[in-house]
Amino acid sequence: MKSENINAEIITIGDEILIGQIVDTNSAWMAQQLNLIGINVHQITSVSDNKQHIIVALDLAYSRADLILVTGGLGPTKDDLTKQTVEEYFGSRMIRNEQVLEHIRNLLEPRGIKMNELNVGQADLPDNCQVLRNSYGTASGMWFEKNHKIYVFMPGVPYEMKVIVSEELIPKLKQHFNTPSIVHKTLMLQGIAESMLAQIIEPWENQLPSVIKLAYLPSPGVIRLRLTAKGDSTDILTNLIEKEGEKVKPLIKNWYYGDDESIEVTLTKLLKANNKTVATAESCTGGKIASIITSIPGSSDYYKGSIVAYANEIKERFVGVSTDDLANYGAVSQPVVEAMAKNMITLFDVDYSIATSGIAGPYGGTTEKPVGTVWVAVASRQRVISKKFSLGDNNRERNIQRSCLNALNELRKLILQELVKNE
Amino acid sequence: MKSENINAEIITIGDEILIGQIVDTNSAWMAQQLNLIGINVHQITSVSDNKQHIIVALDLAYSRADLILVTGGLGPTKDDLTKQTVEEYFGSRMIRNEQVLEHIRNLLEPRGIKMNELNVGQADLPDNCQVLRNSYGTASGMWFEKNHKIYVFMPGVPYEMKVIVSEELIPKLKQHFNTPSIVHKTLMLQGIAESMLAQIIEPWENQLPSVIKLAYLPSPGVIRLRLTAKGDSTDILTNLIEKEGEKVKPLIKNWYYGDDESIEVTLTKLLKANNKTVATAESCTGGKIASIITSIPGSSDYYKGSIVAYANEIKERFVGVSTDDLANYGAVSQPVVEAMAKNMITLFDVDYSIATSGIAGPYGGTTEKPVGTVWVAVASRQRVISKKFSLGDNNRERNIQRSCLNALNELRKLILQELVKNE
Question: Is residue A110 one of the residues assigned to a domain?
């Protein structure tokens, strides 16, 4: 059976989004969930807590989409207008849902909250909707069908919306629509500019079958190259997308590090799988590499720690950098960063280490070593490799961020080299 | 002269938003910036990388708004359609902008990137727009006027969009529209829950003059309490808002640390003004405190470095924690964290130090020490003070973040105490 092409729209209701007080993270999450079952989100619209505005948005979405997800405005207080709007829009009559009332009571009582009128009112629901159970909260989801189009209303509290989507909405959508298959593959690249990448992979891009769409998703230091295939058979699409992935890999092998994961996840998986430990000695990155590695749960399995040697005296006294090297070459130099990496191996008794020293900016640069000059060294028990990066950027935050990614990537490459050698 | 009521809409272009691969943080930020100059955002719409879809969105926004901000789709690659769309929509002719070309060259060359056709193409801009300079990137902003309505197109890369908005757009909008006078004052509080704060300041809140609006802007560990006064005279508003700020301060003195600045900025200003140095010894925060402090330009003036003692052996060998204390009390304990802080003073020869040890989660907790248990110690050359935080949260990232803020704030308090004593 040929699958349908389902077009969805998301409408989020709430003044707090429009004044920038909260970032709308709900829409991205819902879009992901819909994509996974092959439903395409055509538009996301954020509107104010205003009945007329909501109705206009519903009408416009109706004219374009098969499925309309709406979040927000379902709280118990006066400024929550969604239920009134729904009543008017679908010509509903409100009826008390005893099952929902019981659920609300069960939620509030253990928290020591006595049910009041507002809470009871949340059990009054439109007679012409199907109720979607909200396991975590008092505002139920509502599913309406009108002229073969589906409208779903959910609360805006993220974890409540999520439980409704996961437990109730997705199974219902799969049953209701004959959704297409969709397969994604995201190749991660580090250390190449978008425009250069585009040029390199152009011949491959031009020969891509039409069912595969390509997107470049750049962020400082990293580009995600996303392939999306949509069709009827997951098997065929997976096959196709994997084949294209393999075809492009030789072109991008100098920058490609993994599929759809951060460089720190790739690196730490590698460390864990090979039972290796690591330590860091950071100057210009100021503890950020340590912080990135330890952001991963369970990092104590392979990460022993860092010496953030911000002052030169700390480089000397704690990382064993020689006074002569500091005097002769400066802190931002190959000898210093190599000594830092090498010494960390013995000091912390680890298999691998990373060291950084550079000028993050925005000031402190010289003609010889402008802002953005960063030396990175990575070491194993056998060797040390160092590399100079000229980031050509005056932005401190980005220079630190990119230095960290570069450093993590250099260690990944060193480990891979050593693994090949030892095989 | 009475100010106008300006209605704005934001349109974000990009399939990556609609498939949920990225969260649209740009819109919230732009909405905040517009709000700060008294422009109201009526709707936010995210549309696909599709010319027809973009045009429909522009038309609809035109029918409702005075100002339309559009981001995304301005990259150099084929999937970036905004410029083509703009060309069609405004009947533009593309002309090479030599100044922009020079700027692109100056951006790329120091990074060792050779200009290619795609880069040069970014200097081709519509003849009927005003170019908004993008200091950080190669895609310029574009300002169009059509039937007294303003359209602004900007790249979707957040830091590029932000620099265009701050440096170019906001000044231009202030000049173009007769926006009302708006005065903000943001009081920063650390270590208090929103609901408790609301209760404490209720009497003050109730007596606020009607031209002042109050907003609670909570984020993990910090609440920004923002007062906004809107009217015609900046002087009168400033006076009014300062008076109210002084009135509330006695009520919030236990948590208030400064005006509209992060705790690390407040702390490091204090260090710098008093010519003091600091070092850190981090376990559960894994280098994040170091990273936060060194995110501030010039931090080498007062920050010497950190030992990220993730493994217990590092705590013993490098921070001088006794094997007995670790065995008897565990790494997450008052004796261990106090020893860490105390020892850092002598080890790194600094005036102040911070030490942390805790269970960031999401696993690794026990009944006695559940996830979210964090010990923080701060020390001076004279004393050490420690405090246990029970964050009651399972989220690793938030636990680390809040531990860092708590630790920085404890040091701030210690320094203030010592300054008072020494006076």
Answer: yes
